[in-house]
Specification:
Number of strands: 9
Order of helices and strands: HHHHHEEEEEEEHEEH
Helix content: 40-55%
Radius of gyration: 20 Å
Strand content: 15-25%
Shape: globular
Structural class: alpha+beta
Length: 281
C-alpha cells in the first residue's frame, strides 16, 4: 500500500514538476504541500513521540527512496533529507535530543532538515574531515566548510559531520545559529534541492547520541538512500525508452527492431535489475 501510494505520487506530482523545478533551481511549494499530505516523516518518528514508527526498517526506507527517485532524483532527494534526519535522531539520538526535536517531525508542518557531510576537495573521504569540533561550555563548537548541503539555508536543523578528538562524529546544529553562513553551490542533477556551501565559524552544536553512535552505519545508510534514488531514476529512464523505441518508426519499422538498439536497451534492463538486487541485498 505504501509503495502504491508513493508510485502514484511520483508519477502524478513529482515528475510533472521536475523540469520546472530544475529550471528555477527551487523546490516547488505545491510539491512540498503534497508531500506533507503523505506524512512520510511520521514513518521515522516513534509512536511514543507522535509518529507511526513501531520499528525501524531499512528495507522500507530504501523502497521509499526508489519510488521517489522514480518520479525525480532531485525532488526525491530533497524529500528524503528531512526524513533521513528524523531517522538518524530516532536511531541514535539520546532521550533529551529525541524529546527536543522529534515531536516537531510528527506535526502537520514538519521542519526542513538536512545533512552536511561532504567537503569540497578532490577525493573527499568522510572519515578524514577538515571540519573540526571543539569542546565548549555546555556543548561543542564547530568550524569548517561543507559543500553540497541540500536545502541549504532553508534547513531548520542540520546534522554536521566533524572531527572530534581525532575521530569523526556528527553534531546537531540549528538553522539560524550564530556563525552559520551559506553560499550557492549549484549541482547538476540536484538543482531543485538548492544545494549550498556551508561555512561554520565557531557554531554551537550538540553531539548526536551517546557512546552507541555508529558513524560507519550513519554513512552506509545514507549511501543506501542515494542508491535507492538512483535505482528508481534508472527504472524511470528504462520505462521511457522501451515504448519510445517501439513506437519510433524509421525506414518503415520501429527502431527497436534494430539489434544495435534492442541490445542497448536489454543491457539497460540488466544493469537496472542488477543494481536493484544489489541494493536490496
Amino acid at each position: 500500500m505504501m509503495r502504491d501510494t508513493l508510485q502514484r505520487f511520483a508519477k502524478e506530482v513529482l515528475r510533472p514538476a521536475a523540469a520546472g523545478a530544475d529550471d528555477a533551481a527551487d523546490f516547488p511549494e505545491a510539491v512540498r504541500a503534497a508531500a506533507r499530505e503523505l506524512g512520510l516523516n511520521f514513518y521515522a518518528v516513534p509512536e511514543a513521540l507522535g509518529g507511526m514508527a513501531a520499528e525501524q526498517s531499512v528495507v522500507s526506507n530504501v523502497l521509499m527512496a526508489e519510488d521517489l527517485g522514480y518520479g525525480d532524483f532531485s525532488l526525491g532527494a530533497t524529500l528524503l533529507a528531512s526524513m533521513g534526519v528524523a531517522n538518524a535522531l530516532t536511531r541514535w539520538g539520546n532521550q533529551a535530543q529525541q524529546e527536543q526535536y522529534l515531536p516537531a517531525f510528527a506535526e502537520e508542518t514538519p521542519p526542513l532538515a538536512t545533512f552536511a557531510v561532504n567537503e569540497a576537495r578532490a577525493g573527499f573521504d568522510p572519515d578524514v574531515l577538515a571540519t573540526r569540533a571543539h569542546r565548549a561550555r555546555n556543548g561543542f563548537v564547530l568550524s569548517g566548510e561543507k559543500s553540497l548541503v541540500l536545502l541549504g539555508r532553508e534547513a531548520e536543523l542540520l546534522l554536521v559531520a566533524a572531527e572530534l578528538d581525532g575521530a569523526p562524529a556528527v553534531f546537531l546544529v540549528e538553522g539560524g545559529s550564530e556563525g552559520l553562513a551559506f553560499k550557492e553551490d549549484p549541482a547538476m542533477g540536484l538543482k531543485a534541492t538548492s544545494t549550498m556551501k556551508l561555512r561554520l565559524d565557531n557554531v554551537r552544536a550538540q553531539k548526536l547520541g551517546d557512546d552507541d553512535f555508529d558513524y560507519q552505519a550513519f554513512l552506509d545508510l545514507g549511501a543506501l538512500a542515494w542508491c535507492g534514488l538512483a535505482v528508481g531514476t534508472c527504472q524511470a529512464v528504462l520505462d521511457y525508452v522501451v515504448p519510445y523505441a517501439n513506437e519510433r518508426i524509421a525506414f518503415g519499422e520501429p527502431i527497436s527492431h534494430r539489434q544495435s538498439i534492442a541490445f542497448l536497451i536489454a543491457d539497460m534492463a540488466i544493469e537496472t535489475d542488477a543494481m536493484r538486487i544489489l541494493v536490496w541485498n
